[in-house]
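Batch manifest, entry 17 of 40.
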Amino acid sequence: MNWTEKIFGTTGLKPDQIVGPIPATKDIVKRTFTIAWPSATEAVLISLIGAVDMMMVGQLGAGAIASVGITNQPKFILFSVIIALNIGLTVIVSRRKGQKDAASANQLVRNAIVLSTLISAFFYTVGYIYAPQILKFSGASADYIDTSVIYFRIVLIGMFFYSIGSTITAAQRGAGNTKISMKTNISANVVNVIFNFLLINGIWIFPRWGVMGAAVATSLGNVVAFMIAIRSASAKDGFLSLSFKQDWRLHKATILSLFNISKSALVEQIFLRIGFFTYVLAIAGLGTIAFATHQVVMNVMTISFAVGDGLSIACSSLVGQSLGAKRPDMAIIYGKTTQRIGFLIAIGLGLFIAVFRIEIISLFNKDPQILSSGSTIMLLLAVIMLFQIAQVITIGSLRGAGDVKFVAFISLISVTIVRPLLTYLFAYPLGLGLTGAWLSVLLDQSLRYVISKRRFAQATWTRIEV
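Output type: structure tokens
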């Protein structure tokens, strides 16, 4: 028995679950890697570039870090409807790919793009107009709220284009075209970093705009992402092929099929955003230094989440395509294989972060208070990511099968209820401050892992019709 068989062997599949011939383990691992590496690489590189972004802003001081960080949750709340739409789109396109029904898939994508455009225009206009009120409610303090408003408004302009592009790349992921999404987002983020360097610091002929320069750079990157996504969908020889000559009218049956999946995903997003928002609100109340420290560690955590999210996207696509091809046994196998890949990566990342935690934090900011507090939090993060990566991939399996109602239930229990309550309890009454807030993250991630793992083992998700 070779090493791939020992680690990724599929002998754990129950006899009554086997529907047809099972490929060799090395072939299963190879296909999983083929689909997974572009999405995982994309997610990791984007998070690394985002970290570099924060490093550049961090040189302006703790207030600059806080002014950028406080905009994250409001931005994602406005983006949540698009995320839900994209989740439903990925699930259904992957099924249609398994069924080899390109016509239905393309009609669905056209309708989704129209909806994405209308939804984005509405929510980002509201966000732009009411930016001061939104950020004040989010916990922004008086010493940096003016800078936050400027940053938030500029970023929202770019988010309009990013949202439409993300809908296209979500469809491409469902079809298994993860390389397209990777190229789109990496190109956009390279543009972001280049203009960050030029506009934050005022290099050459460019003005020194500081935090505002970071916002302009982000928006320029998002416009580039939109343009590349549009071009990727115009190829005539792909499973997904769009042109303005096609029928772009909204079709009731198509929208309803998308709504049936996306509505539960939207509920999940609402639960997530409420939980994350109240969590960040509690941390913002600990002061500017504590919040800046939190933002630094969150940037590192985003890298570990990116690994899980990238593998989760690939897992969703493989599970959806397998179920579309009437192979629930292969859906289970791909889910387990991806989970094991994620676990091995999580161990390596956790050890790296634990050993080099001080050096990593100092890349963002060298404030002694941030270094001292952040060091303890980074040790917690090294443990957190073991559960985080595992649960994100497992939930990706469930989401790819269309089990979005249960995923929403997990978010309600763990993120909306457990994390905020424990954060408040640990940070304030027990006096643990920022460390207490991150202990709540550890318990939240552990709970999500246990619940999702049990659901996956039951295999009832393989019988959901989409």
